[in-house]
Design brief:
Number of strands: 23
CATH architecture of the largest domain: 2-Layer Sandwich
Structural class: alpha+beta
Bound molecules: adenosine monophosphate, glycine
Distance between the termini: 41 Å
Strand content: 25-35%
Number of helices: 12
CATH topology of the largest domain: D-amino Acid Aminotransferase, Chain A, domain 1
CATH class of the largest domain: Alpha Beta
CATH superfamily of the largest domain: ATP-grasp fold, B domain
Helix content: 25-40%
Shape: globular
Largest sheet: 9 strands, antiparallel
Amino acid sequence: MNILILGSGGREHSLAWAIKQNPKCDLLICAPGNAGMAEIADCCALDINDGEAVAAFCAENAVDFVVVGPEAPLAAGVADVLLGMGVLTFGPSQAAAELEASKAFTKEICDACDAPTAAYARFTAPEPAKDYIRAQGAPIVVKADGLAAGKGVIVAMSEAEALAAIDDMFDGAFGDAGAEVVIEEFMEGEEASFFILTDGTSVLPMGTAQDHKRAYDGDEGPNTGGMGAYSPAPALNDVVMQKALDEIVQPTVDELAKRGTPYQGVLYAGLMIKDGQPRLVEYNVRFGDPECQVLMMRLGAQALDVMLACAKGELDQTQLNWADDHALTVVLAARGYPGAYEKGTNIKGLKGIAGTTDLQVFHAGTASDDGKTLATGGRVLNVTARGATLQEARDRAYGAIEQIDWPGGFHRKDIGWRAL
Ligand code: AMP
Ligand code: GLY
């Protein structure tokens, strides 16, 4: 079959790599893609947030299956347009994608299905929000309601910080995303990401991972999109995972179905785990980046089979074959990220790294120019390895990084520290 992947990050490169290995995949197209994806697929310029344009592209190119990588096209309703045109699509409808696009919506769903999460209140004006913060005290968490590229959350350790966050949000620091604010109880515990496939009725756990959100070693520095990840996440053992499925995920899926807006695709549940009890931090309606890279490294070709089953509503007849393995990925980012950084710096040494089923360099912000690989984004490469143990995967990934010659980049040296 002909398959189109929407997106251009490390997440989408790893999806492309896994899908490409499956014999069901005849032609693989990525839009817009990056230099790494161009080595294994056809890359096309396309406005991926424009459903009509994507649908027209699918008709012209006889695309049988579309995999939507990032949240923006989902929130824009691209999956709805494709399904309306009869194109098999992996990813939720606009209505179901509200789970990521609106934090207030997620809270409402949790209330309706009794899923454990932080206590909260919603505000559309600064003064009542500030009164609430003064009454609750710190630490406390202030969130812009809408999509803010992962930056709309302030975990305030002091009351003053929380009050300042309210001013920033209502002054428009996050644009329309901050027109409504959710204020939440601060939850303590260990964070882990749980990825679940659902066709709207059945759920199939796809894997667990732990991200490293801060830019620098020791979890210091500013928040980023994620500087590295590993899978599985030890905090999400079988007992906690089953609790998360029974108390949070299945009730959410059932609630959305009941409302006539069933969820189809991957559900990314960010969980806080304390004393064996998971509580929901947030939902995302897509794979995590870089968490996807470690999941794909472990799942390989079967990733396509389960995504297809999900889109076709056949998940109850599908299983995943888990190997008893571990994967770890280290993000190489441009110096300065997540702040201002230089674009167009040259990356050398990539050709010396032989890609195998145990080692892959997934590209994010890269472009090729006259045989050179140039850095074009903040997060640029994901050096991803698999091993019988986490230590083995880690040694393999860091060993490969030593072969990369990129003075314009930096990476964390401690990915996996919590589990090791
Ligand atoms: P979110 O975008 O909702 O995932 O928030 C970003 C990060 O803020 C999360 O990954 C957590 O580390 C932290 N966070 C969000 N909500 C809470 C909460 N209620 N309690 C503690 N930490 C939180
Ligand atoms: N790595 C965090 C995310 O994808 O949201």
